[in-house]
Every structure is written in C-alpha cells, then in structure tokens.
Specification:
Layout (H helix, E strand, L loop, with lengths): L1 H37 L12 E2 L3 E7 L7 E8 L4 E2 L6 E4 L10 E4 L5 E2 L4 E6 L9 E9 L4 E9 L1
Antiparallel strand pairs: 1-2, 2-3, 3-8, 4-9, 5-6, 5-9, 7-8, 9-10
Length: 156
Amino acid sequence: MFGRMNRQNGYDREVNRKVTMKRNLKTEHLILIVMLSAFSCTAPSAAKADASGSTYEIKITPSSDPKNPGAIIKATGKGGFHCNTLYPWKLTVKPGPVTGPKPTILKKKDAQKFAKDAVIFKVSHKPNTAKKATADLKFSMCNDKQCVMETVPLSW
C-alpha cells in the first residue's frame, strides 16, 4: 500500500514538474515575442542629404568649386540641446567610387569648428565619378538633464 502511494506521489510530482516547465516555457516565449516586437528589426534608413531629429539638425552643403570638391557638414542642437564636446565625434565617409578603397575617418581634431553651438566638418573627395558620397556621423547632443548618442547616415 505504501509503495503504491509513493509511486503515485512520484508520478504526480513528475506531472506537476512537466506542467510547470511548460508554463515557464510559454512565459519565456511570450516574453521573447514582446521583446522582439519592441525591438523589431527594420532596414536601416536611407542616407539623407540633410538630417534632423528631435535633438539635432545636420546641414550638408556640397562644394560648388570643381577644383575643390567635397562638402561642409554642420551639426547643431535643437530643442534645448547642444553639441557634446566631450563625446568622441566621428564622421566616416564610406569607401566607394568617390573616396577610393578605404574609408575616410574624420574626428574631433579634423573638425573646422568644434564647439557647443555647432560642429563643422569639411570633407574633400576625388571627383572621379558622378555618384554620391555616403557617410555615417556618430555624435552626441546634451541638455541639462541628459545626453543622447546618435549615428546618422548622410549622403551628398
């Protein structure tokens, strides 16, 4: 009699363990689905000539001088934000027919102006094609309460 009850209790424990595992697995799947929908994978946005966000505005002025081709890229803060001069800003002009096989990387020391009100980069490239140049600007804007880091695709 006691042997039968122990086997039955063992069976009940095993069934309860399996049911609990299934519930936990369903909960984990639900959490994963919610997380994936919150951070849905979308295609990167296309590069833009001028860019604007809630904390920044970027203006690109292509050079009109054929002897000195390139562009001037000016980033300013908006909505109470200013350029974070403590952040290591980086402008990476992507390799391609405009720049050659290697990317051109411009940092803080390469900027024409690097101040809280604006950051200005001058980009020069070889005019060996009529295709557009593309770049990524990695930067940070701050206000009194927070700093926001961004990476923005650009083209000109």
